[in-house]
Write a sequence for this structure.
């Protein structure tokens, strides 16, 4: 058996003017409440919403913000615009019972009127000017509850699909296929996360993923993003869930430190960002350029927790969060120093070997966000250990090994990565001689 190893640190060389030492510029919102969602319709015009019935609007890329107050009190969680004039926002209130409202504007947010006042809207998504959906959370004191609601006339009327699940985020990849996140809990400790999918413009919804949540509130799903056949879900249990086949199969990646990722946004099949909370440092923004296989940290020097992120393209985006923080980047979030930026992986990850099937040589990549004792083993289909190809302490970085299966017979094998004797991931490979 021959194993050749080389360690390489991913180095991005970017030829650009030195614009920001942090990659993110803090914008002055003149506001000190929590901002829960941010949405831009173009590079100049955008909105963000707060937990105090306030909508903030900018028409100069976020350099200045005007505060608009809604006619009824609601903690606003979501905002969505279909063009510069027409948009919707929604949220919740607790007054004896749990309720909320959805509001609409037809003049860019200068005026808002109420559409419905009995539901807690956590996410709103419109596929055109008349057809839209909202994720509803109507949980009470002792159990979850909610609904998926749909309108075909811009919000004047809504069709309600009730559920004992609460819903928090919704996204569509086109006018017929969409996804929504659900969460069930009760006072007996039953707690489960769900991903639903529709393939008929929301007429029917089917569960395509479910997992037991052992962390109750601190482990539930938060946000979803869709591009083509790829779906990503961020959550509260230090992980990102990913499917590359329209939700048929799922894989999960874990961060190196506990954190909550409140929002996730992809602009294409490869490039995406997620934001949230991470203590004690301020590395609460992460980015991927390979569809979520690997993530690296982008530092937020402001230090406040972030609740929402949105990008117009690979360079220009905004994030909003606690204490009125609004961040903008025109560099994709990267930090420029002498036109170079070094990035380290944020996840432990194990890549699929290539080529696969192979004969007899193949390459395997893996990433270490922290130094640790690295072990990689080969197993047959019966679980018998065949070889140990790595067993040594290694620093953080990205690695690539070349594995030769010349001493193995043709068949299906599994290779597993262990860090400090803890299993990280296992993948299948096929040897054909």
């Amino acid at each position: 058996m021959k194993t050749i190893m080389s360690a390489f640190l991913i180095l991005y060389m970017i030829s650009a003017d030195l614009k920001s030492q942090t990659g993110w510029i803090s914008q002055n919102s003149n506001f000190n409440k929590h901002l829960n969602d941010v949405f831009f319709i173009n590079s100049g015009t955008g909105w963000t919403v707060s937990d105090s019935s306030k909508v903030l609007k900018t028409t100069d890329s976020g350099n200045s913000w005007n505060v608009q107050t809604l006619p009824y009190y609601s903690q606003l969680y979501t905002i969505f615009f279909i063009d510069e004039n027409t948009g919707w926002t929604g949220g919740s209130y607790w007054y004896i019972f749990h309720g909320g409202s959805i509001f609409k504007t037809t003049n860019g947010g200068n005026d808002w009127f109420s559409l419905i006042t009995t539901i807690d809207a956590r996410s709103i998504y419109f596929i055109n000017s008349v057809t839209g959906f909202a994720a509803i959370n109507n949980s009470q004191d002792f159990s979850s509850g909610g609904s998926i609601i749909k309108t075909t006339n811009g919000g004047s009327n809504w069709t309600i699909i009730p559920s004992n699940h609460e819903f928090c985020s919704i996204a569509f990849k086109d006018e017929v296929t969409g996804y929504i996140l659900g969460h069930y809990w009760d006072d007996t400790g039953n707690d489960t996360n769900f991903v639903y999918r529709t393939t008929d413009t929301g007429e029917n919804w089917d569960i395509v993923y479910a997992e037991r949540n052992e962390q109750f509130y601190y482990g539930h799903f938060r946000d979803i993003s869709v591009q083509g056949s790829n779906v990503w879900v961020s959550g509260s249990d230090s992980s990102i869930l990913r499917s590359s086949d329209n939700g048929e199969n799922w894989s999960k990646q874990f961060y190196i430190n506990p954190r909550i990722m409140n929002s996730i946004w992809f602009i294409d099949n490869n490039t995406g960002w997620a934001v949230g909370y991470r203590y004690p440092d301020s590395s609460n923004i992460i980015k991927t350029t390979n569809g979520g296989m690997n993530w690296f940290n982008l530092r937020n020097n402001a230090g406040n927790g972030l609740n929402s992120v949105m990008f117009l393209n690979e360079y220009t985006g905004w994030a909003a969060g606690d204490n009125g923080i609004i961040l903008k980047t025109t560099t994709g979030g990267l930090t420029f120093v002498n036109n170079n930026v070094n990035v380290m992986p944020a996840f432990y990850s194990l890549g699929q070997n290539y080529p696969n099937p192979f004969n007899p040589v193949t390459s395997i990549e893996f990433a270490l966000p922290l130094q640790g004792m690295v072990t990689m083993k080969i197993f047959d289909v019966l679980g018998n250990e065949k070889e140990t190809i790595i067993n040594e302490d290694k620093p953080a970085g990205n690695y690539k090994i070349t594995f030769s299966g010349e001493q193995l017979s043709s068949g299906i094998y599994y290779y597993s990565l262990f860090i400090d004797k803890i299993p990280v991931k296992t993948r299948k490979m096929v040897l054909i001689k």
Remarks:
- The chain has a mean pLDDT of 85.
- Residues 414 and 428 are 4 Å apart (CA to CA).
- The two ends are 15 Å apart (CA to CA).
- DSSP finds no helices and 38 strands in the chain.
